[in-house]
Amino acid sequence: xxxxxxxxxxxxxxxxxxxxxxxxxxxxxxxxxxxxxxxxxxxxxxxxxxxxxxxxxxxxxxxxxxxxxxxxxxxxxxxxxxxxxxxxxxxxxxxxxxxxxxxxxxxxxxxxxxxxxxxxxxxxxxxxxxxxxxxxxxxxxxxxxxxxxxxxxxxxxxxxxxxxxxxxxxxxxxxxxxxxxxxxxxxxxxxxxxxxxxxxxxxxxxxxxxxxxxxxxxxxxxxxxxxxxxxxxxxxxxxxxxxxxxxxxxxxxxxxxxxxxxxxxxxxxxxxxxxxxxxxxxxxxxxxxxxxxxxxxxxxxxxxxxxxxxxx
Length: 312
Ligand code: TXA
Ligand code: MG
Hints:
This protein is α/β, with parallel strands linked by helices. 30% of the residues lie in helices and 17% in strands. Strands 1, 2, 3, 4, 5, 6, 7, 8, 9, 10 and 11 form an eleven-stranded mixed β-sheet that branches. Magnesium ion is lined by residues 140-141, 149.
């Protein structure tokens, strides 16, 4: 049976909060991608969430909060971490901090780590649900592990409709790529996953951003697992001239099957990426992607398409 897809009326939000209190799974829109929410404090609900996604349980989850106060009850923020909160919350920034002594986020959701990842999303439906639930909600992207993240309620219904209890429909996600994850526990901020917040913005508030050498055998973030965000079709990157039989996902001027951004706008390309990959994947076996500049949001876009292109 497929989960109901509900417009975010007050009644639907109340029903979703009740579902979460009962240990259920609710798909909710955020500004980045749709998340699959569960009560962060309920180990059984979190176990159900890992099972629904078929996600390896050594990959910890992000706990979403309704307020900065709720975040500070879960984690210990340095002054610099608080400066990032001040500058970018609500928004597509996840901060990894030391867990507070009374952190409610279950061990399973934290994969047994002494740290916790926290984010206050900038989406009215996510915020209303968090306020109604009145506690932290873990929410990985609402797709089977390794596949393309959903940016519309229809994507969630198609991929996960029979594995979740309820889907809140908040329309298309505006940012389209997952949050930027910063480890805020040290003297310098560390970029664990490039995402919808341009790293240059972080630098403005807390200079000295480090990009830890990624160790594929010891992922600090599942976004760092090599194959991820993957369509069924074979992908070829940095393509200027597609081969016969290839669909072209373009960027900037020129002919293409679909174009991430005619004007070469990286934010528009980020918002379009996952939806267009899905669309091409439905009709083509081979997808070529035009070169995407590496600066700004291009770092996150290139990260996602590089992982999507891995074949094993
Ligand atoms: O935009 C987003 O962040 C979306 C929306 C739904 O909010 N959520 C999302 O969650 O992408 P998820 O669970 O797919 O990504 C969690 C990321 C993983 O890369 C995980 O390794 C990292 O957060 N993470 C969680 N806890 C961590 C911790 N204590 N230390 C380091 N990384 C952590
Ligand atoms: Mg994901």
